[in-house]
Structure formats: structure tokens, C-alpha cells
Specification:
The chain is 47% helix and 8% strand. It has helices at residues 2-46, 58-66, 87-105, 109-123, 132-136, 165-176, and strands at 189-192, 203-209, 212-217. The longest helix is centred in the first third of the chain and has 45 residues, at 2-46.
């Protein structure tokens, strides 16, 4: 009996020693990791920070944008878009398209059709909302990061009566019924020629409509 108790006590002491050893090893590992991390942080603090890209003037931006060629071969015609919602959903989609076109392109019908086509292209492209209004108002709840600037810069809250609403709504209805604006192809992005967005050089320029430049995502065939 005494021998068995002695054996059990020895086993308990061995288990406690092993557990203590494991705790010490874990503590040493954690302390070592903290020391390494601190060293990395110190190195980062001493390293020179990358210089911020200089802000371009409007003239400089236009010169820079003009140097990027339009790749006509990458401008593939978009398929007709046929809206399949009910009357209420269609009226809402028309209003969203017309609002985006009017705020983004003013009263220029060609520019309006280009904006409308981009919205439709996005609604069918990966990574964007699947509804027309979802595309137009994507990111509107953020001060920055909205997809169409008028939705987050306060412009949409100052919506005024405009003689062009009827005309731009007709364009929107035509686009939802399958009318395609082929001049921008399947472009999903665009910007004014007096600015250079951070994403410009990651995409392929396919069109220019007035002062706006239009892009498609790069594929292996357009790189």
C-alpha cells in the first residue's frame, strides 16, 4: 500500500514538473516574441517614410492622362440590358440612373448616356451591387469612398428642379429597355481628365467622352 502511494505521489510530482516546464517555455517564447516585435517596431520607426506623391495641377493631370493611350481593341460592346423588375422597381431604377447621369454629366446627353452605361455595366460586373440603385449609391453612407461623388458630398441633398429631368429619364428608360451606348463599351470606371485617381494605372483606358475618361479592368489580353 505504501509503495503504491509513493508511486502515485512521484507521478503527481512528475506531472507538476512537466506542467511547470511547459509554462516556463511558453513564457520564454512570449517574451522572445515581444522582444523581436519591439525591435521591428524600432526599425520601422527609424526607417524613412515614403514620400507622398505630389498633388498634380489640373494641367499636369491632363498631360498625364493624355499620355495614357486608349486601347480600342479592349473596348468590347456591352450586351443590351433588359430590366426585369416590376413597375415600381423600374421607376426607382429610372430615377437612380437619371440622377447619376444628371449630376455626373450635367445636361450633356452623350455624357449622360456614358454614365448610364457605366452603371449598367457595374450592375453586371463582379464586385458591385446587383441593383441599379445599389450601384449608384454604393458607399453613400461614408464621407469618402462613395462610388459616385454626388452621393456623399452633399450634392444629392441639394437636388433642385432641372429642365433636363424629363430628357435624362427618357435616356434611362431606353437603356433599361436594351439601348446600348457602345462608345464606352463595358467600362466600369471613369474620371474627369483633370484628375488622376489612384486606380488609373491598374486599368485599361478604352474611351474618352468630352472631359471624361473610361476604363475597363485589366485582363491578360489587355496588359
Amino acid at each position: 500500500m505504501t509503495a503504491r502511494c509513493t508511486t502515485r505521489n512521484a507521478k503527481r510530482r512528475a506531472v507538476r514538473r512537466d506542467a511547470a516546464a511547459e509554462r516556463w517555455l511558453l513564457l520564454i517564447f512570449v517574451v522572445g516574441a515581444l522582444i523581436i516585435a519591439a525591435g521591428l517596431l524600432d526599425n520601422d520607426a527609424d526607417a524613412p517614410k515614403p514620400a507622398r506623391a505630389p498633388r498634380l495641377t489640373m494641367a499636369e493631370a491632363r498631360t498625364s492622362n493624355a499620355a495614357v493611350p486608349i486601347v480600342v481593341s479592349a473596348r468590347r460592346r456591352a450586351a443590351p440590358f433588359h430590366f426585369r423588375g416590376g413597375p415600381a422597381e423600374r421607376a426607382q431604377a429610372v430615377d437612380c440612373l437619371a440622377t447619376a447621369a444628371l449630376y455626373e454629366a450635367g445636361d450633356d446627353p452623350r455624357g449622360q448616356r456614358a454614365v448610364i452605361q457605366v452603371v449598367l455595366n457595374r450592375a453586371r460586373a463582379p464586385g458591385f451591387p446587383r441593383t441599379i440603385c445599389g450601384v449608384v449609391y454604393q458607399g453613400f453612407e461614408r464621407a469618402t469612398g462613395c462610388q459616385f461623388s454626388f452621393t456623399c458630398d452633399g450634392s444629392v441633398g441639394r437636388r433642385t428642379r432641372h429642365v433636363g429631368w424629363s430628357a435624362v429619364r427618357r435616356l434611362a428608360r431606353g437603356a433599361l429597355a436594351g439601348r446600348v451606348f457602345a462608345d464606352v463599351g463595358r467600362a466600369t470606371h471613369y474620371h474627369a481628365d483633370w484628375m488622376v485617381p489612384y486606380w488609373r494605372d491598374t486599368m485599361t483606358k478604352v474611351a474618352k467622352v468630352d472631359t471624361h475618361l473610361f476604363y475597363v479592368r485589366r485582363t491578360a489580353s489587355t496588359r
